[in-house]
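Inverse folding, one chain.
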């Protein structure tokens, strides 16, 4: 199968799964366990996406200035810094990492 066929198949599958969600009774969706699961999955997916975008370069894993930037931003968040400060701290950490040869 070609790449285009796989993309169309994936899009149709995603559409069918999303459309089938409208068939579920509202009482099932209002359960606390379903709401908690949805929130947990969202956080987990965003965390994995952030991690993958930080340490992946094609098929390889790399430790470069992006990882340093993520760690610095995480420390700023832990210290309850405002969002703009977290972004600036991350950018500065990445700039310093690249200046000192982390790529």
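Residues assigned per position:
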């Amino acid at each position: 199968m070609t790449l285009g066929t796989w993309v169309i198949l994936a899009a149709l599958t995603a559409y069918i799964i999303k459309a089938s969600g409208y068939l579920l009774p509202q009482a099932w969706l209002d359960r606390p366990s379903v709401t908690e699961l949805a929130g947990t999955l969202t956080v987990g997916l965003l965390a994995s996406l952030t991690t993958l975008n930080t340490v992946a370069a094609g098929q390889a894993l790399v430790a470069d200035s992006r990882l340093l930037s993520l760690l610095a931003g995480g420390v700023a968040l832990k210290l309850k810094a405002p969002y703009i400060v977290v972004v600036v701290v991350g950018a500065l950490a990445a700039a310093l990492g690249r200046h000192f040869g982390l790529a």
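The first strand starts at residue 56 and ends at 57. The longest helix spans residues 32-55.
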